[in-house]
Amino acid sequence: MLATDRVRYVGQPVAIVVAEDTYLANDALELIDVEYQPLTSIIDPMNALEDGAAVLHDSIGSNLTLRTVSAGGELDQAFTSADRVVTETYHVQRLAPAPMEPRGLLADYQTQQDMLTVWDSTQHPHEIRDHLVELLHRSEDSVRVVAPDVGGGFGEKAALFPEEVAIPYLSIMLGRPIKWMESRQENMLAFHGRGHTVDVEAAVNNDGTLLGLKVSILADLGAYFFMSTPTVPVSTSHRITGPYRTPAMSVEVKGVVTNKTPTGAYRGAGGPEAAFCMERTMDLVAQELGLDPVDVRRRNLIPPDAFPYVTPTGLTYDSGDYEPTLDRALEMADYADWRERQASSPDSLIGIGLATVVKGSGALSPRLTDYARVIIHPSGDVTLHTGLSPHGQGTATIFAQLAADELGVDPQRVEVLCSDTDVVPTGGGTGASRGLIAGGTVLHLQLKEARSALSGIAAHLLDCPADQVAMEDGDYFDQSDPSRRVPFPQVASAAYDEELLPPDVEVGLDFSGMNTLPRSPYAFGAHVAVVEVSPDTGEVNLLKYVAVHDSGRIMNPMLADGQVHGAIVQGVGQALVEGMSYDSQGQPVTGSLLDYALPTSSTMPDMELDTLETMSPLTPSGLKGIGELPTLAAPVAVANAVMDALSSRGIRHIDTPLTPDKLERALRSSRPHSPGGVAQGGTDAPR
After folding, report:
1. What pLDDT is recorded for position 602?
2. CA 88 to CA 86: how far, in whole Å?
3. Among 393, 387, 515, 390, which residue's Cα sits nearest to residue 444?
4. DSSP-assigned letters across all residues of 576-593
5. Do residues 313 and 237 lie in contact, with contact meaning Cβ atoms separated by under 8 Å?
6. Nearest 5 degrees, angle CA 551-CA 552-CA 558?
């Protein structure tokens, strides 16, 4: 939990001070003197693999700590028969999740009850409980974890951090409640996302048909593995195919430890990394072949009659109809008009960028399993328990809506309880767009059971067969005589009165259970970004942004739009301004918000959004996730737009973030070329 013989990254906890107030703690920190002996820094993951490189963990004996290969199809034949091979190396930079509120903990051990209660800003309270049971050698019923409302998680708060074990341990040792609150600078150095260097070789025909892919992913994992650290690069390797038919491919992953902050799942968790490389490659294919990027994508999109579709890396896409979503995005963006304007104004650096992406919801087991409970009280009030642990997704609102629609109860009379291991016995928490997919599905099943029980009671009260009972405007009625009605509260009350119940029906209305989806449903999105780049300063002005998503049935359009807005802003931040940088000694150069830029309202244009609905056969209502999908498309849609604008200057690729300084230097060293994103070859700009 603390560094002992060696500190392996800036930000690693070294010592803990416990005091009665913050001021005393800070004074005590000043009295601690740590003697450091400088060691060779391991910063560049490529150098970390060289013979003779310093080794970060002597017990392992190598800095290569993860290696996988995923392959499928006749790859050699694909490259032998291809008309052209398009290659590029992409660096997907490290990002700081920067939640609105940093992490925090309060642990309170009650000696007499031998009870440890921990309030933790985590996305997974049940997982934290299970880890504390294991690491502190306690029984499950002696540990309670509560996750209160906190400002954002984004994957960072799904990890298990040293403080989450050390603070409860100290509370037990001292018999006192212990509180710890993370500073913003500590947060910036505690966890990072992304950090991949990816080599892509795409074998294509002259018409843009994709025949095969060779991909090599070098992941800078940081100094240690958090719970999701190895998952992300492996997920990237599986997701690299995107929404395209890819007959053959091979993807190798090498994960390397370095003297940097550990990495893990950050909104999308492998999806944005994969989509960035694939979508940049599709644009480069179009550029080298003199084709429109739209045509290249159309030619390679998986057709609707191919579902369920199995990718060469083993993923199964459940359903989809991609072209209508792409068509709608192009229509809303006035794509053809912008292309004409670009062609008629060769001196203005206008660029149009596309991204078409897919994203699974709920990740893999156990993320596809969750718990729900429905309790209908005699008063007609309803309590819902969910294993989710929401962080701003609007779960309470939409679950109350589901209950209202299914049961006929006023949404104001529905209470949703979550994020407390004493109230909800098990749950998968939040992450991987699993809210409505895993949590909503199991709740749907419990509500169906409750509805069936209510209909049976209503039939008894109405003296009619149960299959003749229907519900409308909060009343249960006899379909053969709609004037005969009983309101929902009356039916709920009757459930607790033996004299009013049908024979052999138990008193009460309490339904609970678990459910596991067979696999993840896959959603699709098409984004179009239009930018103008200043030839003098390199500043990027976002002129238009359109996003259309097919996430199956949309249950609450306002909440869906909110998820999309936030995800696009994070994606634009990755494309234009965000990035963790280190010097050669391992010191973070962007370790605070004084140096690490975040997107602001002035960065964003008005977003034009729409949704289409292709139902998933895997969920009762045809649902697919939407919370992470835009984070795959937004970074590369903007990057493709900027590169499209600069292609007339012979610039082929620049790594994100596409800062004005970086673009201005590239423009100064570039040469004019034909407009419209169809340049042949070109020079690599500074990275």
Report:
1. 85
2. 7
3. 515
4. HT----B-TTS-BSS-ST
5. yes
6. 65
Two structure tokens written together for 350: 């206008």
Q: Please give the single-letter amino acid code of residue 588.
A: P
Residue 675 is given by DSSP the state: S
Task: At 343, list the tokens.
Answer: 């062609």
175: pLDDT strictly greater than 60: yes
> Between residues 27 and 686, which one has the greater pLDDT?
27
The residues facing 470 across adjacent strands are: 477
| E strand map for 78-161 | 84-95, 104-110, 115-120, 143-146
Model confidence at 363, pLDDT cuts 50, 70, 90, reads confident
CA separation, residue 232 to residues 194, 340, 641, 673 (Å): 8, 40, 26, 38
The residues, any chain, with a CB within 8 Å of residue 60's CB and separated by 6 or more, are: 257
Measuring CA to CA, which residue among 342, 338, 339 is closest to residue 544? 338
Q: Is the pLDDT of residue 215 over 60?
A: yes
Task: Report the share of the chain in percent with pLDDT over 70.
Answer: 98
Q: Domains for the chain: give ranges and CATH numbers.
A: 22-39+98-188 (3.30.365.10), 318-361+521-580+588-687 (3.30.365.10), 369-516 (3.30.365.10)
Is the whole model's pTM more than 0.85, yes or no?
Answer: yes
pLDDT band at 675 (very low <50, low <70, confident <90, very high): very low
